[in-house]
Amino acid sequence: MKRQVERLTFGSFTTEVRAKFLELLATVTPPGLTRIQLFTGGAEAVEAALRLAKAVTKKHEVLGFWGGFHGKTGGVLGLLGSDFKHHLGPFLPGQYLSPYADCYRCPLKLRYPECGIACAEYLRDVIRHQTSGEIAAIIVEPMQGTAGNVVPPEGFLRAVQALARDHGALLITDEMITGFGRTGSMWGSDHDGVVPDAMTVGKGMGGGFPLSGVISTDALTSTPPWSNPSASSSSYGGNPLAAAAGLASLEIILGEDLVKNSARVGAVMLARLEQMKERFRSVGEVRGKGLMLGIELVRDRLTKEPVPKEVAQALYQECLRRGLVAMTYSPTIRINPPLVISEDTALEGLGLLEEALAAMLPRHGLD
């Protein structure tokens, strides 16, 4: 990046480093998804993917999921499946939500696998009763990040893809968090054997530098008005400095085999979290794929009532006192360590988390 700063830092035109980055990225994308348009932030890329879907299908409605998070701009606020969007309306018309496959807190009060993945089938009812039948896209996180690193059961993403095809809609997977090895595979959708029509990427792609993208097929991206000059461009998307960051990040991910490291260290961490679940009854569930892990803190395992937020905040402070910075400020804890983390460092961090739990829970009448 230092070399690039000394040469050129802005402009959305093609540069040598951008061409090298895109060429390398196209070698690891799902089969057929080799057309890449770069942007700056996640929400910008998501909005662009929705424009692509509308261009291809000539339809205008979009389906998302409870618990979903796709950014904070006006074009996607209606697709946020939480109370984050309260008092921020009105939202764009034509955006609808359906229950996600959160099996620990099943919104349909069913149990997997006996349910037959009923939440995916419920999408059909949403389309039938709430929409005008003009579905351009279904957008879904292969594993929900902001909702608590929720891992859906096998077959959920495939069922959603089948439904999208039945309705002539594009399946867009939002891989902002799950992409680039976070889940122990290069893409979160790999775990269910799904190749989407388009996917949005970011975060890990730039190694912390503002960089995002939409990845789709040649056939879909050649559709006007998406394919018209400047119709899909971004003023600073893929600028030379961002491209340098993306190239460096991807070279390190591939060169240091960080996807495999994510799978290996993540499995060790999940096993360690299972031990904590055995020790503390307030740990209702642990889950995860790769280095995308989640913990549910509950008052009671039977009712699954979350602990009060002040309990989680007390845990956060206990972690800080021990030198551990973690997303423990909510009853639903997310653990997303860097892809380069070693097994020893990961276990050391979990040891500090266990100490913090042991110190905090009794003070709040929990065990």
Brief summary of the model shown:
The protein has 367 residues and is of the alpha/beta class. It contains ten helices and ten strands.
Walk me through this protein's architecture:
By secondary structure, the protein is an alpha/beta fold. It has two domains: about 1-255, Aspartate Aminotransferase, domain 2 (3-Layer(aba) Sandwich); about 260-365, Alpha-Beta Complex (Aspartate Aminotransferase, domain 1), CATH 3.90.1150. It has helices spanning about 1-5, 15-25, 40-55, 120-130, 155-165, 220, 240-255, 260-280, 310-320, 345-360; strands spanning about 35-40, 60-65, 95-100, 135-140, 170-175, 200, 210-215, 285-290, 290-295, 330-335. A seven-stranded mixed β-sheet has the order 1-7-6-5-4-2-3, sandwiched between helices. α2 packs parallel to α7 (about 240-255). The protein starts with a helix and ends in a 7-residue tail after the last helix. The model has no long low-confidence stretch (mean pLDDT about 95).
Please write out the topology.
Layout: H1 2-7, H2 16-25, E1 35-39, H3 42-57, E2 61-65, E3 95-98, H4 118-130, E4 135-140, H5 156-166, E5 170-174, E6 198-201, E7 212-216, H6 218-221, H7 240-255, H8 258-279, E8 283-289, E9 292-297, H9 309-321, E10 332-335, H10 343-360
Parallel strand pairs: 2-3, 2-4, 4-5, 5-6
Antiparallel strand pairs: 1-7, 6-7, 8-9, 9-10
Helix pairs in contact: 2-7, 4-5, 8-10, 9-10
Key descriptive features of the protein:
about 375 residues; alpha/beta; Aspartate Aminotransferase, domain 1; 2 domains; seven-stranded mixed beta sheet; about 35% helix; globular
